[in-house]
Design goal:
five-stranded parallel β-sheet, five-stranded mixed β-sheet, 13 helices, about 15% strand, binds S-adenosyl-L-homocysteine
Length: about 325
């Protein structure tokens, strides 16, 4: 799959290696220079068979000392729910390009492994309730790294704009005039539902789907309960495992049937994915017995019952 002309490009690069070393002091400058050569007009000339022209362009770039990217920028990228095959092409390209990766606990190991090997990695925690560093510190970190001229990959689980604090982070970048891009990812609701064989909408059972957070404040899960109890609506609850008992009780108190099907998906889309199905009345006890752990997603609605027929992933 590698074009034959890459050999000639490699030879050209080899001939200039020492000169580039002498011209650029730091490893980072050299790498940025070589990237601009290998992904820019010099490479294109080689691919077009114009080797002499390519050499002239390379000499010129070396003389000007232009490393291409001098300004830093931030890529706010959704890393999806876990399975690396669910990344977008755009996410993967930026992951291969960034100088530093700032990532959360929810980013799966297998996704992280696809980032450029020599990129610096900064873990910023974020298991529920116990942030390793605060959101303000993360915002400030992104700004500082970009101002140092780095290409910063802010890698998040799922989609950055769904319970991902993506808005806060780019708000800060915007205020500081730092260029950035946002790359959507597959949110865990989509990923978990697909891999659990539960269609979130269905012509007969659900005409709408609602994403809510079950994150508790002062031990309370404060949600607009009456709105959540709707006949033809699927409810997806993020960050809700710790408040599962409360959620089920409140929904029943507000009129949802105790027999309403409910599913918990732990580590969705990953090989270790576990799924538990039950009813509003019995799921909390079952979850305790089977020791379900975050990250887990809760799906409530009649569509959950379809899993009996549509489960394709755990059977494969
Ligand atoms: N931006 C993310 C959500 C972050 S909130 C997204 O779009 O998916 C964190 C919550 O997402 C977790 O508490 C859990 O409810 C859910 N979650 C993320 N990844 C998950 C996975 N692989 N399996 C199950 N739930 C997951």
């Amino acid at each position: 799959m590698i074009p034959a002309s890459y050999g000639r490009l490699g030879q050209l690069a080899g001939r200039f290696r020492e000169q580039v070393k002498a011209r650029f002091e730091t490893l980072n400058q050299r790498r940025v220079f070589w990237e601009s050569v290998l992904q820019g007009p010099v490479a294109e000339m080689i691919f077009a068979g114009k080797d002499r022209k390519a050499e002239q362009l390379l000499e010129q770039a070396l003389e000007e000392g232009s490393t291409g990217h001098s300004d830093g920028e931030v890529y706010l990228v959704g890393g999806g729910p876990g399975d690396p095959d669910l990344l977008t092409f755009k996410a993967l390209r930026l992951m291969q390009q960034a100088d530093v990766v700032v990532y959360d606990r929810l980013v799966s190991r297998r996704v992280l492994d696809l980032c450029r090997r020599d990129a610096d990695r900064v873990f910023v925690g974020k298991a529920c309730n116990q942030h390793v560093i605060s959101q303000e510190e993360i915002n400030a970190l992104l700004v500082r790294l970009a101002k140092e001229g780095k290409r910063v990959l802010r890698l998040k689980g799922g989609d950055p704009f769904i319970f991902g604090r993506g808005g806060e982070e780019i708000g800060e970048l915007m205020a500081e005039d730092i260029p950035f891009q946002v790359v959507p990812g597959i949110t865990s609701a989509s990923g978990c539902a697909a891999y659990a064989g539960i269609p979130l909408t269905h012509q007969n059972y659900a005409q709408s789907v609602r994403f809510v957070t079950g994150h508790m404040k002062d031990g309370q899960c404060d949600l607009p309960w009456p709105e959540l109890v709707q006949e033809h609506q699927t409810l997806v609850i993020y960050m809700g495992l710790l408040s599962l008992t409360q959620i089920c009780e409140q929904l029943m108190r507000h009129g949802m049937s105790p027999r309403m099907p409910i599913a918990l998906v732990e580590n969705g889309t990953l090989p270790e994915q576990r799924i538990l199905t039950g009813t509003l009345a019995d799921i909390a006890d079952q979850a305790a017995v089977t020791d379900f752990q975050p990250p887990a997603l809760i799906i409530i609605g009649k569509v959950v019952a379809l899993r009996d027929r549509l489960d394709w992933y755990s059977q494969s």
